[in-house]
Amino acid sequence: MSSNRVPDTLTFECETGNYHTFCPISCVAWLYQKIEDSFFLVIGTKTCGYFLQNALGVMIFAEPRYAMAELEEGDISAQLNDYVELKRLCVQIKKNRNPSVIVWIGTCTTEIIKMDLEGMAPRLEGEIGIPIVVARANGLDYAFTQGEDTVLAAMAHRCPDYNGASPNTTNQDQAIQGLLSFLPLKARNVYEEQSVSTHPPLVLFGSLPSNVVSQLNLELKKQSIQVSGWLPTQRYAELPSVGEGVYVCGVNPFLSRTATTLMRRKKCKLIGAPFPIGPDGTRAWIEKICSVFDIQPQGLEERELQVWDSLKDYINLVRGKSVFFMGDNLLEVSLARFLIRCGMIVYEIGIPYMDKRYQAAELALLQETCNQMGTLMPRIVEKPDNYNQVQRMRELQPDLAITGMAHANPLEARGISTKWSVEFTFAQIHGFTNARDILELVTRPLRRNLSLENLGWTALVKKDKINII
Amino acid sequence: MKLAYWMYAGPAHIGTLRVASSFRNVHAIMHAPLGDDYFNVMRSMLERERDFTPVTASIVDRHVLARGSQEKVVENITRKDKEERPDLIVLTPTCTSSILQEDLQNFVNRASSTSYSDVILADVNHYRVNELQAADRTLEQIVRYYLEKARKQNTLNQSISNIPSVNIIGMFTLGFHNQHDCRELKRLFQDLGIQVNEIIPEGGSIENLRNIPKAWLNIVPYREVGLMTASYLKKEFGMPYVAITPMGIVGTAEFIRQIEFYINKWAPILLGKTVNYESYIDQQTRFVSQAAWFSRSIDCQNLTGKKAVVFGDTTHAASMTKILAREMGIHVVCAGTYCKHDSDWFQEQVKGYCDEVLITDNHTDVGDMIARLEPSSIFGSQMERHIGKRLDIPCGVISAPVHIQNFPLGYRPFLGYEGTNQIADLVYNSFTLGMEDHLLEIFGGHDTKEVITKSLSTDLDLAWDSDSLSELSKIPGFVRGKIKRNTEKFARQNSLSKITVEVMYAAKEALNA
User: Which residue of A has its CA nearest to B85?
Assistant: First the structure.
């Protein structure tokens, strides 16, 4: 708090944790859409329900495959039997939707009243015949995207065991199988291609839209790397087999529990790579995987240059501009690294939680990128304090603040351009193909500024209020 | 346990925060886990607030669970006291913290001994009251606290004003069209020569609460929030209150007559004469508001006997039912509310104006009822608008819960005489659109249909293989056409005759789309 100077090595600070972020139960929003045959039951109170309803906006009207098991006074004071109550609701869900899996999302309330979800699930699973996965995605322990991490970690336990012999092809997305059909266009032999995969099985983890999944598969395919499965898959029944001898690699920076579970419980080997966000990240990600499998990457450099080339117009807009990440979704380090490579100056990387081991390769790439671009290292602030951050921003006056919606409008009114951070979670930002989408988001306030320039009203709060941030 | 997808009224702490953050220079501190502060998002998004929402959280995390909050809450209160110097800090429990059963009152006592601000603990039970009930209670709690404090310090301003004056109670943040209603009421009182003494909580200052007893009477425009405060003020200070909602022509006239009645209790003494608002009511009704004329016009004649369903909070649903039935001759087949705690009042209000009454907070019951009754139009909340979309029935939004489009920038009151115009437009637009729709259906739609839907790309020379087609079908409908055109354009430029998934991605990258 004392000084606003940007340090020259990567520094880690930890503040009070008084910051704004989404509750981790919000992960149901994208996970129920990703896993098509699932049903997410959030066991919590009205507060949780109201959050989902407001945060997910329109989605709520589309007959979503998620619901609240709303706890009432009788549940809290243990006048009602949890098991009987949950069974009643799950039977109803089975009757109405017949999902292949029910995911119970434990919340703060179930933690506090110590409802034994992990104990009840196997028993109920046996009785109603539908798998029940328990994820404790609560605000006591986690922030926003970490909700997905808890769900995927729980799901990792349900992946079939890998036994070295059987080829691991049945678990592929339809999209991958589809991709094989037009490989001849690339003047390669399909049959050879299939038998070429001599490397050990590779399973990627992290929930991405199916388009992005096929894009990343395709990029690896070009390096003769066969992805044998994804966690999660489009359907619960198609979870990939994992076990000793299987290599796993994460696509998102917030999946440290999933990584740990795959390593420790499932004996997989983790490939620690930077994340495929931005062309630099994507290239580093592929290179790392190639190096593990002892494959010489083909044409990656040209591919990256070509993507950078196509981003020129946007890069001209962002070059030399400064960014301040307030921090709420754990994508911050990867995004900051990409933006520094684009020529931006990053003052501060706020982040809810920093797993230095899981993100090691990403942090190394950040440092390397800073050196390469000749910029000072940004400070990384774990568990930030929003009030202090706003004070720092007042002094630094960044060109762009990447922040939650609670602060966006007030900052805009004080003349600081903002980009809503949650959009990065919902937009397609992975791989070479989507690099432009990241810059599309980042430059939007800058482009808006260009079109509204010369109007003379940037600070829109009354004079006496500007200073009382 | 209850299986729930949607709720009409939010949890209790939202009500408390809405009241607290409506006052000027009042800060609320939630005792809550990370992520429970999405109230700030709602306020900043829906109301497009320029200022930081004066709500922070004292985070309940794993450590707090193990050891209790200890110094944390007190530290957060004193820190906020130093940083922003609010007049009042409201410590707000959430459903999570209320299970922890920490002695929050003790924290409040300790913190208030060291801070400049007053500190109080919001007194709401999360498992018994909803957002609206909690807001009502918190407002009463704050008013009571400051009037009692003023009484102790002998600063209570009890001398009644020289000219007729009122307090408007219950205007607050995130309320359905509250800001516009507030402006309209102020205009109405100005017309009537009545001074507005205090408006609480919106924009009100804690300092001024001691002036409340100066007013001749209190106005509670909305049933949901303000009644507790008004009845407290009646009991303590003998202040009468008017709890009629001035919505619709008849409702507004009743409201004004009731005010006249109370003003005339003091007027002979303080003004030396009685007031009579009848000519004002007559003038406004017949010539200023267009709604009375509208209901005589042939437009409205065509609406006679058309079926409508009304659902919302008690205030808006009851008023709307009466307006439709009594002022426009529309057949209200069902009127309903989600305010179960106030169902007796609602039933009594709509009695005689509708065929049946539905009291529920389950949106599927509402959906089933609408599907069964097949009205020509619905007047409800955003939920009913979506039910209407699915059933192809037009809907006018008349009540919270609402979306951002229900916080319009333009002037759209629901109350007072301008409100009657707005409501007439809303009703008329909902029905004509429905009618137009039917006509289109009967005559097979506009004849330009084929021209519009005809694909602009010539498909002849390009073949999409089955994978690329399935990939295309995964793209959301509203951009699919554009992606298809771009891909084909790219394929033609590169003289490719077959479109595969690879070509699609290559096109995306090449065209920067």
Answer: A468
Check: CB of residue A199 under 8 Å from CB of residue A249: no
Tokens encoding A346: 């990053």
Which parts of chain A register pLDDT below 70? 1-8, 57-63, 165-197, 463-469
Please list every residue in chain B whose beta carbon sits closer than 8 Å to the beta carbon of residue A113: 99
- What is the pLDDT, as a whole number, of residue A110? 93
pLDDT, mean of residues B121-134: 91
The Cβ-side half-sphere exposure at B5, using a 13 Å CA radius, reads: 18
B199 forms bridges with which residues in the sheet?
A: B168
B136 annotated binding-site participant: no
Say what the pLDDT of residue B305 is. 86
In the chain, the amino acid numbered B99 is I
Please tell me if residue A310 touches chain B, with a CB cutoff of 8 Å: yes
What is the torsional sign of CA A122, A123, A127, A133?
Answer: negative
Find, in chain A, the residue whose alpha carbon is nearest to that of B80.
A387
Distance CA B316, CA B275 (A): 30
Task: Quote the pLDDT of residue B433.
Answer: 66
Contact of A453 with A274, CB cutoff 8 Å: no
As a whole number of angstroms, the longest Cα–Cα distance in chain A is: 73
d(CA B244, CA B188): 15
Identity of the highest mean pLDDT range in B171-175, B438-442, B476-480, B502-506: B171-175
Rounded to whole angstroms, the Cα distance separating A231 from A240 reads: 7
Question: What does the block give as tokens for B485?
Answer: 């055109």
Q: Is the pLDDT of residue B486 over 70?
A: yes
**Are the beta carbons of B62 and A468 separated by less than 8 Å?**
no
Identify which of B51, B94, B500 has the shortest CB distance to residue A182.
B500
CB distance B512–A88 less than 8 Å? no
Residue B434, marked binder: yes
- Which of these ranges, A145-159, A322-336, B68-82, B307-321, has the smallest mean pLDDT? B68-82
- Which residues have CB under 8 Å from B137's CB, separation 6+? B15, B123, B124, B129, B228
Strand partners, B58: B31
**Does domain B165-284 match CATH 3.30.70.20?**
no
CB pairs under 8 A between A and B: 205
What are the residue numbers of the active site of B? Answer: 299
Residue B477 predicted with pLDDT over 80: no
Contact B37 A64 (CB under 8 A): no
Strand order in B88-93's β-sheet? B55-59, B26-32, B88-93, B118-121
Q: Do A46 and B52 touch (CB under 8 A)?
A: no
Q: For A49, which of B7, B57, B389 is closest by C-beta distance?
A: B7
The token pair that represents B32 in the structure block: 């809550």
- The topology under which CATH files domain B463-512 is Helicase, Ruva Protein; domain 3 (1.10.8)
Q: Contact at 8 Å (CB) between B497 and B464?
A: no
- The pLDDT, as a whole number, for residue B214 is 94
At residue A168, the pLDDT reads: 46
User: Omega before A232 cis (within 30°)?
Assistant: yes
Does the pLDDT of residue B285 top 60, yes or no? yes
* Residues in CB range of A455: below 8 A, 6 or more apart: none
Measure the CA angle with vertex A449, ends A443 and A451; round to 5°. 105
Q: Which pLDDT value is given to residue A191?
A: 41
State which CATH number among 3.40.50.1980, 3.40.30.10, 2.30.30.30, 3.90.190.20 fits the domain covering B12-129. 3.40.50.1980
* Overall number of domains in chain A: 3
- Taking the Cβ of residue A181 and every Cβ of chain B, the question of whether any pair is shorter than 8 Å is answered with yes
Q: Do A86 and B1 touch (CB under 8 A)?
A: yes
Residue B435 annotated as binding site:
yes
Confidence at residue A192, expressed as pLDDT on a 0 to 100 scale: 40
pLDDT of residue B366 exceeding 50, the answer is: yes
Q: Assess whether A308 and A446 both reside in one domain.
A: yes
- Amino acid occupying residue A293: F
